[in-house]
């Protein structure tokens, strides 16, 4: 009975706790709030849980402040800080993150007199990018400063490093917050950009209203109440913010607004600091009708930037609208000036509910060479250096490293003298092939010297005054650049290799009592991994004898192993017939000793290459193709024939042409790589044949042919609607993304084109013909890519690749952008009909039309009027981002997949959305389904346009209606001012960011 009661009623005691935990999970998904310097976790008045910073950083000193903070937020959390003496180059928080996710990062600072002298100067960095410089003086001692950034993680990143870099004085921080944003929010940050918030305004709010933040804003953005003298209005009714409003302002912000009978304006002075760091800006304006208006009234707003019209005829409705502008350049005044006027056709004046301004800055997309970084992680683990976090070389190097200045930095010097290190030197240090200096002296390192024969650039090796043991490797003599080899005062034993006695090498070995001359027969003692001296503790005779016994035992064991291996080899060779064999590890095809290439009689047709590709006989291929009766294609490898295997499987058979100058290379490459490459959006290799000088590849058959055959040309197989085209683009992008990121080694296709995208019976797209691909170069290739003969197809070639003979993954992205334009325009990349008024080059023609905001003129006539405008704009802007002249400005395939996913979702809606705004610079031509009203569509561009600034002669945006794509940085709206035409200008603060900005 007692147990039964507990089972029934114990749940009621646990229920409140369970509900509390559930509420916490539901209201704070993914939030990370760090109370820097705090000793215990706590929960603030908003219900946000704060944790100590101990799990995220292992340097710095906790400090409690003695004075209260004057701040609207986080009063308790601002009472502690962690400060970092200038005793090392940087101190980094490592924040756990999710791959392919956009985050808001907010850091708050209150000096509060934690040090007597207030002259602190330090920098902030996020991952490899230095983002801001901070200078504290007595003027700012009690000011609370908040810096907010929007960044994105990549496919290969599951953490974000936030670093403080002292500049001769201590750095400090009070709070650090990480907030995940929804898919599609501020996604321009994926294009090698990050955003810094300059201001975020809740327009129309009363001065007494507190700023809006969590939980009203589920992403915990902070919307400040402006102090400008502009008439405001409010409503108690919630404003509908649909999913088409990509940056998702909270309803609480949209329920107030500035209004005027005629016009008002809003300006932001940037100041010297920001102008020096930032060339382009990202601006958001949010609109919604919140007043009770007559059915006959209309509110149509004309928006101007620096005196030029940039969005006329915006019809405001009760649903939220978003007008955005990215890559916006300022004029010589250094101000962003926006004015809002009533359109002549409007019966009501302008309105503005909320606004955001961000600095859009270039992100450093490089990082320390992966190989070097991985070795350093092992080194740190082995030797107790785990407190060093962040990128080893960027934006500043660890104190004990020197790095070169390459795009992908290599570590050239490790100097860890007198660091009290323990543990062993990892063998993987031999992978740091750019090393010139390795100093690990004056520590407590044990173990043997690893094989360093790959460090051909090594000049100095200092290992003196440690506890290392074992012999001195003779391979050290093979290092051509070695000038200093200091080994003194260790526990090394055995003979000193005679080859080390050479001119130009300073060899120091004193203090190793068990070392002897190369002519002497002295044993090498066992390697000491414990750090103790017990190995050498006994008498010389006993230790020497132990070494001899161990040496004999090892020798006998090696001899036995060799004999066994020889017996096994002879047995296998006895049964092996001359044939083509397969190395199952590498997939490489090997010829027999005669040099001929015959089918293996033992392996037979069912044998597998790399456990995947089947080995066919030439006879099987000829039967399947009816002696090559039906040719279905022609590629660089040779002709492609239709075939049917004995089990009924349809196949495409590629036969190496006799004229192919690279047939053998391509064949070996395709067989070895493709046998291990499997993805639903890649054409699968089913088998191969190499017999009688024939080199043949057998692929799965794609019955619907190539994408090109469905877009244009005399071989048209059927037309595709826009939804089908977007789905095909997305599937092909996923296949290419797999090649770039998930294959080992990663693969560059080198010949992406519409002819190499094949379609199944149900129009599933698969990328083909990547057998001529080459895997990417090692990261230490200072060229940044694979240097090779330029290969590809005219019209699709990356101009950087063509000009500099340097292949990168972004070369494939360029080619894919051309394919996207083919899908939009329904025409080939090069038009040889010079009588046609359209331009010869598809990319140039599309760019010129889109720069004139004329999307409709480039759309394939077959799909005119039968597409979702948002989806079409998304793909058009993505295509133009992909064909940017500079590879650094192009998205990667992860970003391409994300953008196409959004485009596919937009196209999936059967009805055109209403109440959302379109491309700010795009003026409809009447070709759209709903006529000329620009308020009926929106775009979500994630990539830059080719036009980078608004000039005095231009009335359109620098990009085609691009949204502000990146989470907002956070500061008090200092330097922002606005007025009605009759007001006196409020100068405000000029925002000269030579010092931190107060919250």
TrEMBL record:
PANTHER family noted in UniProt: OS07G0107800 PROTEIN-RELATED, REPEAT FAMILY PROTEIN, PUTATIVE, EXPRESSED-RELATED
Name of this protein: non-specific serine/threonine protein kinase
Membrane-topology descriptor: Single-pass membrane protein
Compositional bias (Polar residues): 578-593, 920-957, 983-999
Compositionally biased intervals (Low complexity): 594-606
Record has NADP as a keyword: no
Catalytic activity field: L-seryl-[protein] + ATP = O-phospho-L-seryl-[protein] + ADP + H(+); L-threonyl-[protein] + ATP = O-phospho-L-threonyl-[protein] + ADP + H(+)
Organism: Riccia sorocarpa
Region entry Disordered, spans: 578-606, 906-999
Subcellular location: Membrane
EC nos: 2.7.11.1
Gene3D superfamilies documented for this protein: Galactose-binding lectin, Phosphorylase Kinase, domain 1, Ribonuclease Inhibitor, Transferase(Phosphotransferase) domain 1
GO cellular component: membrane
Domain of life assignment: Eukaryota
Signal peptide feature range: 1-27
The entry's keywords: Glycoprotein, Leucine-rich repeat, Membrane, Repeat, Signal, Transmembrane, Transmembrane helix
Transmembrane segments: 548-572
Alphabetical list of CDD domains matching this protein: STKc_IRAK
Sequence ranges assigned to domain Protein kinase in this UniProt record: 626-902
